[in-house]
Amino acid sequence: MPDENGPLFTTENTESTKGSLPSVPSASSAVKNPVSVCGGERHAHGHCATSHGCSRCACPPRRTAAASGILNIDKPQGCTSHDVVARVRRLTRQKRVGHAGTLDPLATGVLLVCVGQATRVSEYLMGEPKRYLARIRFGTATDTYDAEGQVTARTEAIPSLEAIEALLPRFTGRILQAPPPYSALKVEGEPAYRRARRGEEVEQAPRPVDVYDISLRDWQPPELELEVSCGRGTYIRSLAHDLGQAAGSAAHLAALQRRAVGSFSVEDATSLVEFEALVAEDLWQQLLHPLDEALLRYPALLLPADDVKRILNGQPVRVGTAVARELRRAYGPDGEFVALVQGDAGAGVWRPHKVFIAQE
Known about the structure:
Layout: E1 36-37, E2 40-42, E3 48-49, H1 54-57, E4 69-75, H2 81-92, E5 97-99, E6 108-115, H3 122-126, E7 130-138, E8 140-142, E9 151-154, H4 161-167, E10 173-177, E11 186-187, E12 190-191, H5 192-197, E13 207-220, E14 223-230, H6 236-246, E15 251-261, E16 264-265, E17 270-271, H7 272-280, E18 300-302, H8 305-312, E19 327-331, E20 337-344, E21 349-355
């Protein structure tokens, strides 16, 4: 049933907020390559003009000392995840910057940007559970499975609330899901979206994905609002498309907000405008989360000083009981995060898996 507090998405507000999704144009009026990037207009020279003008945008601050940590950015609608990473890299003048899980231009919400050594833990962040708010529009299907695509089907058949509720359990648990034709997954060595843009028919075999929970939040025909908790590799666009087909209708993803990745939530995220203001004041590093926050699923292991030196030299250590193939967060006696270590039960030791501090 719909959430008793009513819908989280409003059509009156076109700005992304932490508690709702912006309204988006219908599939028939949407464009695949929006001009607006991160809230500004992209000019011929490639820079993004913001409220402060292009001159400042093209002249970022001087290089600062190397930093490490995780930024929780509230991605605005209309820019790619790569755009956000490029903007963070330019503003901070940090060399090593990447993200931990792509959000489509249509989507808003939590985008984890890894800086410095934290780029080495992005794979673990990608494996964290994710939570989304999705608005699905019945009656039209598109080639991209979202509002940015070309309409491929229209129907007047709109399912009832009862029919939708009966179908949702089918999409929960370990399910097989085919990725959208427009995706970054490679087909014979080439991203699927490139083939789709050339007009080639793209069919990808269904893959197992984990959908932990689906909650129906609101139903205002023809639009449905769902909250979805899922694992890595789940396409909410495919969920919308497949739900439309299962209901004997057609559907596409009209809006999407990523509410959380693991312990990182949109309520604690920083907008790009706020981030830029802190960069101007040289305070942006206050936003960095320690990189071991990406690894909290693994137990901690406290090492004496001598064992820290051994780990830094690539040597195994004997501390407690080593569990076969289990990963632990290793800390020195001063509480500094040193490395991820892996158990070797046969030898009774913990071996360095990834070391995060340099030997002095």
